[in-house]
Specification:
This protein has two domains: 10-190 and 231-257, NAD(P)-binding Rossmann-like Domain (Rossmann fold, 3-Layer(aba) Sandwich), CATH 3.40.50; 191-229, no CATH class. It is built from eight helices and seven strands; from the N terminus they run βαβαβαβαβαβαααβ. It has helices at 19-30, 43-57, 71-85, 108-136, 157-176, 195-208, 212-223, 232-243, and strands at residues 10-13, 34-38, 61-64, 90-93, 139-144, 182-189, 254-257. It has a seven-stranded parallel beta sheet with strand order 3-2-1-4-5-6-7, with helices on both faces. The longest helix is centred in the middle third of the chain and has 29 residues, at 108-136. The termini are far apart. The model has no long low-confidence stretch (mean pLDDT 96). This is 3-hydroxybutyrate dehydrogenase.
Amino acid sequence: MSATSLKGKTALVTGSTSGIGLGIARSLAAEGANIVFNGFGDRQEIQALQTAVENEFDVKTAYHNADMSKAAEIEAMMNFASTTFGGVDILVNNAGIQHVANIEDFPVEKWDAIIAINLTSSFHTTRLALPSMKQKNWGRIINLASVHGLVASAQKSAYVAAKHGLVGFTKTTALETADTGITCNAICPGWVLTPLVQKQVDDRAAKEGVDNDTAKKRLLAEKQPSGEFVTPEQLGALAVFFCSEAGNQIRGVAWNMDGGWVAQ
């Protein structure tokens, strides 16, 4: 077995039917981990995705459609992972939503939804995953925060608050598990071309009357010095590194992969 072989381990990745979550799920499957998918989408498309991952990487997969804003559904999903695979060894808290508005105009229900999905859901999955991880004395908890867990942008108050909260929660989890074989870390991506970001690109293109490529370049130029998007595959490779033996003493970090955004 290689240092990163995850054969026999189970990874649950929230919000993994597309974008970053799918990239990370595929990277973990490539190392032999069974995958519990979660997220929205057409059931047939998700089944096709499961079959593709199973065939490509020779792993088992399952899917649970828990709404990450609802504690009872999260609990049902964690129980499902336990009965299907005997527990969760690698927990990737990735589910997230976004809304952009000035604070005084920010819809209260949007604030509540963003805090629930981007922050509180990670508390629920973590509290439910820890007992079995402690029993095995091995586990990896990876929280997908954001550069917005380290710095702020205007009009993203709820997102920035949730992601800063997630970085803090990561540190506390790491300290509480410091004398065990469980690690907890946060990955803080810059711009990744996910459906969420593509929507911002489309809105910008429409607003400024430019084509999609120009809108992408302008978006990157504002924040990301490399001028390139981070890819889900790059984030997946970092998650695999956290799961390797080399990651045993990486605990409580907020690791930004952001093309130089936070270095400015």
